[in-house]
Amino acid sequence: MNLHDPGHGLRRVNTTDFLSLIALALFVTYGVTLLNTILPPAILQPAWLVTLISALLDSAPLALLGLGLVHLVAYLAPDDIQVQARRDAIARWAVGAVIGFLLLFPLQIASAVQGHGLVARSQSSAMQVAAERAQEFQRAIDGATSIEDLQQRLATLQGPGLQLTEQRQSLTALKSMLSKRLQESIKSSSDVIHSPWNPSVWAIMQRTLRVFLLAAVYALAFAAGSQRRACDLSLLREAQMHWDLTRARTVRRRQQRFEVRQRQQQLQAEEALEARAQRRRQADAPVPPALAATVTSSRALPADMAYFHQLSVDGESMQVGELS
User: Fold this and answer.
1) Alpha-carbon span 53 to 194, nearest angstrom
2) Nearest alpha carbon to residue 23 among 80, 57, 96, 73
3) pLDDT tens for residues 171-221?
4) pTM (predicted TM-score)
């Protein structure tokens, strides 16, 4: 196939026009589907929030495919100024889509909190109904005067009838057995209602996990095709660059702190070696001779006291000489 053939260029133009129309159809379908789902708005209702989030996520592949086709058309027609301008405009609009999918995280949290509140109120109401029903049965059991009366009271409350083996018991034993069975039924109902494996609670958790995963995936996908004004990089590339710069600065700061710590440890080791060598030199130095014992104690005396001390010493020396 000759790329310089005029027919080839015409076929490429026809292909780009066809892909552009497909992208436009996908965008329109996405908008119509979304509006048809979320109108009329009811922001404070949990069901509307769930419907809005589901519509945004379920219809997101249409918009994502349309965005991909727009970029493909721009790649096939790099010299078409109108196509390039259209791609830049839609890429800037895709930034809003990224922000919208990121906003689904707090929106889903609010929806999950509201849904959990509804489940808690439903559980409380069900437990209250079960308790009132149990009190009615307990009053019927306590007020019965005979087995026939007890059976009639239970039938009036649409409760289970008495078996033949139970009718042969005494009224006191039958009341005790039915009361015990009623308490076990209340406990079993409470365990079922307040069980952590409640299907409603697990449905909320599963929906929340699904929304988080899909919102993150679609936010990254739209970020790869979005572009801020006066910027040649996609939003995803910008985020990656910022992440790389932040990580590099963090690694550099850690390396600097490590080097400072190493220098401090080295200085401390050198100071310890110097102190050890100083103590060793002091221990090996010769000890100076002691002062002569002939040094008189008058050196430490004041001048006047030293004078009288010298006179007394000379007088003693003269007496010793005369005696000798």
Assistant:
1) 28
2) 73
3) 777 777 777 887 877 777 777 766 666 777 788 888 999 999 999 999 999
4) 0.63
3-state secondary structure the chain: CCCCCHHHHHHHHHHHHHHHHHHHHHHHHHHHHHHHHHCCCCCCCHHHHHHHHHHHHHHHHHHHHHHHHHHHHHHHCCCCHHHHHHHHHHHHHHHHHHHHHHHHHHHHHHHHHHHHHHHHHHHHHHHHHHHHHHHHHHHHHHHCCCHHHHHHHHHHCCCCCCCHHHHCCCHHHHHHHHHHHHHHHHHHHHHHHCCCCCHHHHHHHHHHHHHHHHHHHHHHHHHHHCECCCCCCEHHHHHHHHHHHHHHHHHHHHHHHHHHHHHHHHHHHHHHHHHHHHHHHHHHCCCCCCCCCCCCHHHHCCHHHHHHHHHHHHHHHHHHHHHC
pLDDT category, 307, cuts 50, 70, 90?
low
